[in-house]
């Protein structure tokens, strides 16, 4: 498949010799205007890749922070059409920062996979992470997505052993998302040395960049993980910063965008301090 | 459009990938995938192992009280004045419903797989009680996830579970009902994959659960079919069971699927009526196909693919999905699925209680309500077999409230 913004971004960062900061937030949390303002502010604050959550009523793999974000978005009337509108609006001003949509299959399935990937590609989406579509279900969405020129980013976990890794990696593109712990998003922070081992294990099976997430909350953790990975994913911490900035009715305030920008700036400094020797 | 080609047998599914037609499958996070493959292998081995089957059979007899009786409901038959109605008495099982059949099978599987901790979800609490029961019997710690709303509605069952040594975790996410409890159980499982066995209560979820739960529940239909032949010398004309997730129904239906002359009806919870937006739990009559909790099946959902909560007077039918094999049987036309509304179920609950001296579970009352509609129009020589899936003691407070009585 042709090179995507994700491929270009990871190649550029490899040349710079630093890992990517991958940020997650839920589209429409707590309203579309706030999400758009955040999207526009994130690249300057140091986000290299943006994951945008597609809210779903039953987020089975998510912890309390991201569950609550999805509910806030749905309560605010967020729909798939509005999520794609946000990407379209962002793309008018930024043609370089990769956008990855992350979520669950049903809201895509009801639209039809072929129609969805065409619409997403046209809106300026670069990749998809769909939590409840394992490689055994590749014909559902992965194959149509790849055909449409979207990256399909797969999660690998501690339970994905060496025997299963080739199956998981077979149609993966863009990057591999290594879920550093068995658990839901926002759980306990991973142990950096075990992460190093796991990333090395995955790299024996693929040339793709490996990003690590689940449980990364601080600049220090981002630096520690970033020393061993091609990317560091931060989600629950950002979503929690949004939650903490809202007023009692759950509406965005003047503090919402600055709170996220400050956090991402700090995380970005952490990731940049993780400088590691360029791989030989 | 051409009609789909009908299979030679309706009883051979699922295929190797866990599909019944387009329904079923394994739509789960990668963390769970290796576990589910391991579970499938363990189940295949257990199924072929005579020692496993012998132990399950012995427990079913001596612990659960099987075989359950096939009972001619003479009072109800006389009252309705048409086809003869028979009850398969799953209400007489230990713990008061069919749920024990599945729990005994799965607890033996958990032990065989070397797991040391049991988790389960429950709506009305029947499956939670059955899970806590087998966990007590086999010495496993057990955590039951139950929606906070249901914890309040079903206080006696919560106490039972606690007496049996289980931990009951109320789930406040979403609306605090069965689907939210299932989400939370899946989150627990993802976090504790190494030592934990997820004892799913209905014939839904990722493959192989729909198949193995069906297999453990099929004892209902196998017994009923043999008992019918022995007692009446013939098969029934019509088989009826209530469908929430659908485990009692698939267990009853499966052994009859290839009996061409036996009509089969699954009864969905019509709640306040199908015309009421989000006022029912009839996913096959008022929903459309989607993907939730690891399988593709008919779901109550909005146009954007967000899952709706649904409603039924019966907490056990209050689920926005249905087991995938039912979705397939619906599409092939082998089984007809019809709704019964809350008021009809309530009437059946009272009629059965008064004419038979049997207080049925509200779930089972939905099946009886359909028999009440059909029997008068059928010949006195015809036979209707109804799965009386559980006893109704747990429901007396709900019914009392609906009838405006103070208990």
TrEMBL record, chain A:
Tetramer of two alpha and two beta chains. SUPFAM superfamilies: Ribulose-phoshate binding barrel. Keywords: Amino-acid biosynthesis, Aromatic amino acid biosynthesis, Lyase, Tryptophan biosynthesis. It comes from Kaistia hirudinis. It catalyses: (1S,2R)-1-C-(indol-3-yl)glycerol 3-phosphate + L-serine = D-glyceraldehyde 3-phosphate + L-tryptophan + H2O. Its EC number is 4.2.1.20. The active site is at residues 51, 62. GO terms for cellular component: cytosol. It comes from the Bacteria. GO terms for molecular function: tryptophan synthase activity. Belongs to the TrpA family. It holds the Pfam family Trp_syntA. It is an enzyme of class 4 (lyase). Pathway: Amino-acid biosynthesis; L-tryptophan biosynthesis; L-tryptophan from chorismate: step 5/5. The alpha subunit is responsible for the aldol cleavage of indoleglycerol phosphate to indole and glyceraldehyde 3-phosphate. This is Tryptophan synthase alpha chain. InterPro entries: Aldolase_TIM (IPR013785), RibuloseP-bd_barrel (IPR011060), Trp_synthase_alpha_AS (IPR018204), Trp_synthase_suA (IPR002028).
TrEMBL record, chain B:
Residues 65-390 form the Tryptophan synthase beta chain-like PALP domain. Its EC number is 4.2.1.20. InterPro entries: Trp_synth_b_CS, Trp_synth_beta, Trp_synth_beta/beta-like, TrpB-like_PALP, TrpB-like_PALP_sf. The keyword Lyase applies. It catalyses: (1S,2R)-1-C-(indol-3-yl)glycerol 3-phosphate + L-serine = D-glyceraldehyde 3-phosphate + L-tryptophan + H2O. Keywords: Amino-acid biosynthesis, Aromatic amino acid biosynthesis, Lyase, Pyridoxal phosphate, Tryptophan biosynthesis. The keyword Lyase applies. It holds the Pfam family PALP. The modification N6-(pyridoxal phosphate)lysine is found at residue 99. Its cofactor is pyridoxal 5'-phosphate. Pathway: Amino-acid biosynthesis; L-tryptophan biosynthesis; L-tryptophan from chorismate: step 5/5. One of its GO terms (molecular function) is tryptophan synthase activity. One of its GO terms (cellular component) is cytoplasm. The beta subunit is responsible for the synthesis of L-tryptophan from indole and L-serine. HAMAP family: Trp_synth_beta. Tetramer of two alpha and two beta chains. Belongs to the TrpB family. This is Tryptophan synthase beta chain. It comes from Kaistia hirudinis.
């Amino acid at each position: 498949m042709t090179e995507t913004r994700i491929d270009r971004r990871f190649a550029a960062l490899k040349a710079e010799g630093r890992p990517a900061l991958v940020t997650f937030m839920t589209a429409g949390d707590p309203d579309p205007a706030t999400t758009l303002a955040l999207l526009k502010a994130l690249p300057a604050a140091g986000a290299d890749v943006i994951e945008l959550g597609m809210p779903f009523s039953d987020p089975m793999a998510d912890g309390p922070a991201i569950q609550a974000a999805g509910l806030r978005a749905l309560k605010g009337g967020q729909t798939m059409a509005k999520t794609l509108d946000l990407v379209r609006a962002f793309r008018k001003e930024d043609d370089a920062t990769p956008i990855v949509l992350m979520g669950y299959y049903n809201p895509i399935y009801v639209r039809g996979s072929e129609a969805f990937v065409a619409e997403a590609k046209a809106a300026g989406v670069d990749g998809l992470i769909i939590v409840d579509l394992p490689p055994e279900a590749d014909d559902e969405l992965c194959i149509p997505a790849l055909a449409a020129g979207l990256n399909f980013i797969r999660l690998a976990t501690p339970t994905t052993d060496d025997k299963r890794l080739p199956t998981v990696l077979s149609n993966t593109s863009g990057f591999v998302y290594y879920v550093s712990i068995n658990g839901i998003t926002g759980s306990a922070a991973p142990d950096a040395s075990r992460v190093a081992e796991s990333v090395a294990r995955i790299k024996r099976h693929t040339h793709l960049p490996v990003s690590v997430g689940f449980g990364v909350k601080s600049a220090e953790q981002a630096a520690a993980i970033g020393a061993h990975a091609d990317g560091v994913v931060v989600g629950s911490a950002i979503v929690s910063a949004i939650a903490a900035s809202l007023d009692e009715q759950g509406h965005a305030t003047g503090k919402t965008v600055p709170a996220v920008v400050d956090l991402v700036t700090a995380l970005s400094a952490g990731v940049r301090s993780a400088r590691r020797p360029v791989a030989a | 459009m051409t009609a789909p080609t009908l299979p030679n047998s309706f009883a051979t599914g699922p295929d190797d990938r866990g599909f019944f037609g387009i329904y079923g499958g394994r739509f789960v996070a990668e963390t769970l995938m290796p576990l589910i493959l391991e579970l499938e292998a363990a189940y295949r081995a257990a199924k072929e192992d005579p020692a496993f089957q012998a132990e399950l059979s012995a427990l079913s007899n001596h612990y659960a009280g099987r075989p359950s009786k096939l009972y001619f409901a003479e009072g109800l038959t006389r009252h309705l004045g048409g086809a003869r109605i028979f009850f398969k008495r799953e209400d007489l099982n230990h713990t008061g419903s069919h749920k024990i059949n599945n729990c005994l099978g799965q607890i033996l599987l958990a032990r065989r797989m070397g797991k040391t901790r049991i988790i389960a979800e429950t709506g009305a609490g029947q499956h939670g009680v059955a899970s806590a029961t087998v966990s007590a019997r086999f010495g496993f710690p057990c955590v039951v996830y139950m929606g906070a709303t249901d914890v309040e509605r079903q206080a006696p069952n919560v106490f039972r579970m606690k007496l049996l040594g289980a931990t009951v975790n109320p789930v406040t996410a979403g609306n605090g009902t069965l689907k939210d409890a299932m989400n939370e159980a899946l989150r627990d499982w993802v976090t504790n994959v190494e030592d934990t066995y997820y004892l799913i209560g209905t014939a839904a979820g990722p493959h192989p659960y729909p198949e193995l739960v069906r297999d453990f529940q099929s004892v209902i239909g196998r017994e009923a079919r043999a008992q019918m032949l022995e007692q009446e010398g013939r098969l029934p004309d019509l088989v009826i069971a209530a469908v929430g997730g659908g485990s009692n129904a698939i267990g009853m239906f499966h052994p009859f699927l290839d009996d061409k002359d036996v009509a089969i009806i699954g009864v969905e919870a019509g709640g306040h009526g199908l015309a009421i937006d989000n006022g029912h739990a009839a996913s096959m009559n008022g929903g459309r196909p989607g993907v939730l909790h690891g399988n593709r099946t008919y779901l109550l959902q909005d146009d954007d693919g967000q899952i709706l909560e649904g409603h039924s007077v019966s907490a056990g039918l209050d689920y926005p999905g249905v087991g995938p094999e039912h979705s397939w049987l619906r599409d092939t036309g082998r089984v007809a699925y019809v709704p019964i509304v809350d008021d009809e179920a309530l009437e059946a609950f009272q009629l059965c209680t008064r004419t038979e001296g049997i207080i049925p579970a509200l779930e089972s009352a939905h099946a009886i309500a359909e028999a009440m509609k059909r029997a008068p129009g059928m010949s006195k020589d015809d036979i209707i077999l109804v799965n009386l899936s559980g006893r109704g003691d747990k429901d007396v407070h709900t019914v009392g409230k609906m009838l405006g009585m103070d208990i």
